[in-house]
């Protein structure tokens, strides 16, 4: 598979995009992506785009080229490096893409030094670009530090990107106006909430109406989208699904973080409309773990 639509999708989001020569045929075709991985280069504060892109094209002592499909400059401009598989991660031992490696993940390298503050211009461009990719694909989002964190006995641990990934996912979800709750959740958290809904005879599967009978709620429609995404994810045999779940408290924390991207009253209204008479059971389940 080659992602020949990358430049067009980013441009359609109003972003400035540069196409690095040869990108359409660069990278291996042994590539079946189903996730977005966020990185930062951790280069010098005085690094140039040319220097950073040279490394992505030619590799380093620890990573053969190409290193990432996309590069985000401090200017907020995007550079498309490759359309095929690149070498930007190891097979992850944690996070939303546990058990997944380069063949299943698209990599974004943002020009950024250790300890450097994120400018609004670059951070906002990062959010908009990832939102465009997610809108095009439905893929989940993770940070390198979530994929290869310390504490698991592996030598190659990561701490990038330096921004808070939960906040980043909320910002991505809100960047289209904040209409949907669910995109702020990781794929794993979405799967857990989806399973809970189905196990409790969630009315949305039968086209349930809003309390006033006016039609489907936003959250209900988004659940339909998630079901399709998860069906595709399972078909691709992502090992993060179906086993090694994080504990219930982490799931609930993730759900509440996602709901935090909406006004609390709006979130409560959407959940009440979706869960109907079973909203009390949901409330009891949440409060029992606090």
Automatic annotation (TrEMBL):
Q: Can you give the residue ranges of the N-acetylmuramoyl-L-alanine amidase domain?
A: 32-161
**The organism's place on the tree of life at top rank:** Bacteria
Q: Which Gene3D superfamilies match?
A: Peptidoglycan recognition protein-like
**What is a single Pfam family found in this protein's UniProt entry?**
Amidase_2
Q: Which residues form a coiled coil?
A: none
State the name under which the record lists this protein: N-acetylmuramoyl-L-alanine amidase domain-containing protein
Q: What is the lineage of its organism?
A: Bacteria, Bacillati, Actinomycetota, Actinomycetes, Micromonosporales
């Amino acid at each position: 598979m080659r992602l020949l639509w990358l430049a067009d999708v980013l441009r359609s989001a109003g972003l400035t995009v540069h196409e690095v020569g040869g990108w359409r045929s660069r990278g291996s075709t042994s590539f079946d992506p189903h996730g977005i991985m966020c990185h930062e280069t951790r280069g010098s504060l005085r690094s140039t785009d040319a220097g950073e892109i040279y490394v992505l094209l030619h590799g380093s002592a620890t990573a053969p080229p190409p290193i990432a499909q996309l590069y985000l400059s401090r200017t907020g401009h995007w550079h498309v490096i490759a359309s095929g598989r690149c070498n930007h991660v190891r097979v992850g031992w944690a996070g939303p893409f546990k058990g997944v490696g380069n063949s299943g993940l698209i990599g974004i390298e943002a020009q950024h030094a250790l300890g450097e503050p994120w400018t609004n211009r670059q951070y906002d461009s990062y959010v908009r670009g990832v939102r465009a990719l997610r809108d095009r694909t439905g893929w989940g989002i993770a940070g390198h530090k979530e994929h290869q964190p310390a504490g698991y006995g592996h030598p190659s641990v990561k701490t990038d990107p330096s921004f808070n990934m939960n906040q980043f996912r909320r910002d991505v979800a809100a960047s289209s106006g904040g209409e949907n709750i669910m995109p702020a959740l990781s794929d794993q958290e979405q799967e857990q909430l989806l399973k809970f809904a189905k196990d409790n005879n969630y009315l949305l599967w039968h086209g349930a109406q809003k309390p006033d009978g006016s039609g489907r709620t936003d959250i209900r429609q988004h659940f339909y989208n998630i079901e399709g995404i998860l069906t595709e994810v399972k078909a691709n045999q992502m090992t993060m699904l179906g086993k090694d779940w994080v504990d219930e408290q982490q799931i609930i924390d993730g759900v509440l973080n996602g709901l935090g991207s909406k006004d609390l009253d709006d979130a409560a209204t959407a959940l009440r409309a979706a869960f109907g008479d079973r909203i009390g059971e949901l409330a009891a389940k949440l409060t029992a773990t606090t």
